[in-house]
Amino acid sequence: MKLCVLDFETANSSLASACSLGLLVIDEGEIREEWVSLIQPHPAYDTFDPFNISIHHITKDMVKDAPSFDELYGELLDKFEGSILMAHNAQFDMSVLKELIHSYGLKNHHFSYIDSLEIARKCYPQLRNHKLNTVCDYLEVNLNHHEALSDAKGSAMIALYSMMDVEEYDLEKWIQKLNLKVRRL
User: Is 4 in contact with 85 (CB distance < 8 Å)?
Assistant: First the structure.
């Protein structure tokens, strides 16, 4: 079983306004693939809010030639196959994924997912908070916060550091050991 770590950035407050996606595939405890793409937001939600731009620095001009989510979905399904999905504060990213699937009328495969925020809280309870940048600073993981691939890498490193105590890579045993909640999209 693989772990597919993802991070979305959105153009505005709408969950269907994804403008970037970063993704890493972890298999046998190793990062096997890194993937990132700008996304042209769904036409009904393609207004770029200055607040969001100030966070991730992605503008409408930058995504004008980017694929739409429905154009990427088949490729993403290939990456998701045999995987548990993960994100930091997964409720947000999985809500974006679910809303995109709904907005484009795509088939929802009801993916299983876990949250690296939960992992951080269990493994590093001494931290003042468990925001991605705080945990990455603690672990000395280089992070370009709010850049989708960098955020996915940060989330992945939280998982990989927590796996160091597992004798052999076994995703199911690791999930059981940390008593992680596996949710369904």
Answer: yes
User: Cα separation of 149 and 43, whole Å?
Assistant: 24
Helix residue ranges, H only, 85-127: 90-103, 116-123
Is residue 185 within 8 A of residue 97, CB to CB? The reply is yes
Q: How far apart are the first and last CA of the chain?
A: 18
Nearest Cα residue to 109 out of 71, 80, 67:
80
CA distance 154 to 147: 10
Q: What pTM did the predictor assign?
A: 0.95
Could you give the CA distance from residue 29 to residue 95 in angstroms, rounded to a whole number? 26
- In this structure, the number of other CB atoms found within 10 A of the CB of residue 180 comes to 19
What whole-number distance in Å separates Cα of residue 6 and Cα of residue 42? 19
Question: Could you report the per-residue pLDDT of 18-47, keeping only the tens digit for each?
Answer: 999 999 999 988 999 999 999 999 999 999
